[in-house]
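seq/struct pair 1
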Amino acid sequence: MGKSYFASSGSDKFDFQNAFQASLHSGGCLVYNLSIIGLFSLKDKQNGLNSTFQPPPIQEQESADAARRVDILQRVMASISSGLALDPLLSNILHGAVTLIEATHGTIGLTAERNGETVIRTVAVYNMPEEEMGAEMVSGIGLAGVVLRDGRTVQLERYGDLNQPTLPELAEHSVIGVPIRWGEKMIGFFGIGVEAPRRFNEHDAETLELFAQYAAVAIHNANLFKTNQRALDEMRLLYETSQRIGLSDDVDGVIDAYLDQVAAGGRYVCNICLYEHDENGQRSVVVVRGRWSPTAGLEHPQERLPYVRDNLDPILDAGQTIAIADVRTDPIVPPALREIQVKTGRWALAMIPLMVRSQRIGLVVLSHPGMHQWGEESLSPYCAVAAQLAVAIDHRMQQTLLQERGQQLAVLQERQRLARELHDSVTQLLFSATLVAQSIAPAWRRDPQEGEKRIMRLLELSQTALREMRSLLFELKPSEDLESGNLPVTLTALERIRRFGMLGALRLLAGEYSQEGIKIQVDVDKEGEKLFGPGTGSRSGREPMLEESVYRIIQESLNNAIKHAHARRVSIRINCGEPNTLRFSISDDGTGFDPNSTEAGNENQGSGMGMTTMRERAETLGGTLRIVSAPGVGTVVEAAVPLKEIHV
């Protein structure tokens, strides 16, 4: 801090530093100690203090001055104790110092980092030109720059004696510049000036150093409060965004949640970019999946740009954020990126990588018109939630991929089932019909009555084969719409469910089987109609796997009842009265069979693989399936599966 103008070992001398330290107590709260008052009742009539302090007689004017100074200090320290907003605190401290020292103007600045260099940025002014507010001084320039360079108090009788003054109109003013320190670190600058002919003395410099310590306490407390408040804000933002993301079903929903919670209401244009990869797993395309801007709000541009690797990739691949104040002058900016940003007028750019398992899957790209210094505070919300965004996007992508592969596997399994059933039934019937047809002519020549029997047998085989084809391929033939028009020829079971709800799809299925003269009844309780009836779709899209699996179990049960057990009446019952549970059963009046029989090829059992598939489908849903049957008494298939708790 420079000299300690009032420090002395003599018992009759005033120790300024000890007096100030005595005013700091009570757990770090700044409390005024009236022992300082004596400091400001001194009158230095010789531009300095006597080495031995002898209090002069207290005159009326001196008492008034002391009271005024005490009042100023009390107001300054009261503002420090009661407020945490930094700018008003520093303005009050500056005003108090200028008033107490009877100066005419002053400034307070804080240190900041600019392109790796420390500067002093003015944050409080008193009776100074407007352009001084926010001005930044580098080392050695102006009074603040000299204090920053030397790290000590600077007192000049003429401001114009500086090597590089920034305000020539103040050349004849006396000035004092003091560093503001917290511990060993310089965190700011305190400077005041006074018009000629008055000149500052050492007593004024010591007073300003006192106020610099007040300012340091205020800055430290305000920074602590800001840090804690920012941490709380980030926690709240993470919690609220997590809630929104958790309710999002797909990647676009996750991106919308991020933009609505983090970007909306801000001053930056925020783009969410994801990568597509070629057959070698290399990035090939950049897709802009979402954007928020102050002018247009939330958008889904779906812009596709070719991916070009540049010198920014190693930094981003390491998970580091890149902040560029001006793309025109920053040498790290690739020419192509510079050209794009200059055209848009958004010279300031920040890129936050979206990292999952040490791999970059995309970017959060922020831009701002003109030149802009990116501070930690402005980028913090975007960075804090970026990791959560990346994980959520990756999770939804993996879910989509898994669902697509599951659908492909389901298609393959269905094709295999059709191929197996075609081989076991239709192919066998056609082969038998061919043999019968070949034997008709010889039999007719031997005995017309025998020939007629062969023809009737051929007709029976043909009709049976036709029924088999209808039961296996009914989803590929035109079906009557329940309300209007015809369904598409290739409408799948899942598409039927999505269009008509699960109950509508089952009633379509029952109607098609009924065309063969079989009576099928579908009974559903009120809760089942509410959950799965027409217009419900796939329970708000949350359980399509459940609905399709239930449909397939019932379909397989109907196939077995009609084809193998030769049932003429089938009853399907669906009950959702039990909380969060779906129970359904399929009962028929067919020939029945022994469920415990392991005899291969027993036609009454149907396909052993089909029964196994039904059980597997129920167990995959976390449910159970039971088959009750006996020869001659029909069959009952009973299943129970859990339901997600969805309010409808």
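seq/struct pair 2
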Amino acid sequence: MGLQHASAQHAEADSLMGIIQYTTDGELTPDTSNVLILIEIFDTYRFVEQDSAFKYASLALEIAERLNFARGILIATYSKGSMYFTQGNYQEIYDMAFTALQQADTSKYRAEQARLNQLLGISYASQGYYEPGLRYFMRAKNMFDAIGNEMGAMQNLVNIGVSYLKTQNYTKALDIFVRIDSLRGLKPATISVPVNLGFIYYEMGEYQKAEYHLKRVINFEGEKFDRRSLGLATFKLGEIHLAQKQYDQALNFFSQSIEIYEKLGNKSEKLQALNGIARTYLLTRKLKQAEDYALQVYNTALEHNALPDKQTSSETLHRIYRQQGDFQNAYKYLSLYKSYSDSMQNDEISKKIGRLEAEFDFQKKELELINEQRQQNAEHARTVSEHRTYLFITFSLLAIAVVVASLLYRNSKLRKKANRLLQEKNEEIEAQAKELHKMNELKNHLFSILAHDLRSPLSSLHGFITLNEMDSLTQKEIQKLVPELVHRFQYTSNLLNNLLHWSKSQLEGYTVEPAEFHVKKLFGESTEVLNQKAANKDLSIQNNIDEEATVYADKNMVDLVLLNLVSNAIKFTPKEGRIEVSSSQDKGYTTICVTDTGVGITEDQLATLFDTHNFHSTPGTENEMGTGLGLTLCVDFIKRNKGKFWATSEEGIGSQFYFTLPSKKP
């Protein structure tokens, strides 16, 4: 069946090649019809011979650009970009599509521009930027809906569903894909739908349903469809069997996935299947085979600077060497894993700023095009006005007066409309510029915290280890230094925990998962973490929350808020002081109050305490250190759960921090 299919594709391509026009020198004629024929040839090879498809798409784009053939450039850019997507070259997709849209006339070729917006969404989403990707997918869907292109609208509905899946909004994602599957059924154009249903059910832990949908893909008997779907389906089937400890089946599916990606030339997604094999061998204690595969992934990721794969493979290698008893290498790859994890978080922030700058440039270009169009409209209106004036002079002065008045009125409306559009674009650009400035300030502040507050405890630990290795410390000195090191690393642990939560929330990746629960029980469990800290200062912590007090919010977020507020109260309360956590309920809301008998807060400090773009920190009563990041997290998390946050204080007497949350599910 495969040979017959390939033969049919070649016959179709040969037929199209027969109508291409050539010059007397045997070169392709630079003609618009040749561009469109080359695109048709690309379509015949797209799903069966990736190299040939890429060649003809590139040739079509080259000729279209030489001719300045606007529509041909847009179509060829989309065709070549789709090949880069198959290869996993996502940055190249972004550069091509963004450049083509910047140069396009926004009033023409709406279908072609919709496809390029879809490509931009793919370039963002494939690199993990699902929020901006979602915006482009929605824009593309709306454009396809406006021109009645049902297939294009459906494809972008699929992309929207994938974005919800990646941001862990499984309910919305499942609703979209079940609806598409019931309406469309399984066809070459909808082959990605059961793939995504398999991924969603896998994340929800429903392995039987996930396996059913993924096997629909690998058993599909169609011809022209995206073979990347097979690679994804077989990889995820390997993950399912690995999770169920069915190791032979897992290895089989991972191997099938690798073979498919090798045929597609997709080195990026092949690495995850290789790492799947390494993890399978690790779990079956075949450590030498596990090491070979994990090193292959790691070295390839180093060669292509694939940061996520460097992170996953270094973690796998750490676990392998730890089981082998090779603690030197285990420590090496654990350090690399932590370094890559930190780099990925920093890279997320830097890339988001870069994307904002690119979108700012794009909006600026759109504004320039609007200004240019307004000038052309005004020039055209003036020409028409002069022409009509000359025509009507011979008939009647009255007719001239009527025409002039009509034109003036029309020009006035055009100017008002253009000015309104210009003002709206200016306001949009100013808002983006302010957001970009804030993001830069946040990034710089975050890096300064990392540079300053992490260096000190690590330097102390390095010095301690060095002195200990040199036998320069007595037992008495060691006993004196260890508590200080423990204190420093408790602070560092709290800092890292808050930083990770804060950076995740700032990158729009923190999903709120509300539920109804009793606050007193939650705080009682959390108090265990703080009891020793309070005991060191002879402080009492009283849990006076009403037994029946409930809130409807994200439990983990509320837990972190309570820990930060009580930790701050301990920090700023002198020895033998008192800390009380109480509750009240009114009009469907529960209010939690953390009261302390500490040093209090001045009016000036209280006025700037909740500025989320600056981190405020003051040493505690025993010079405890902090960054101010914990309070910023508290404000952010309470707002995300539809609550309010405020504080009162009297200097020298104590402080009260309040937050209010819904008592029940709406």
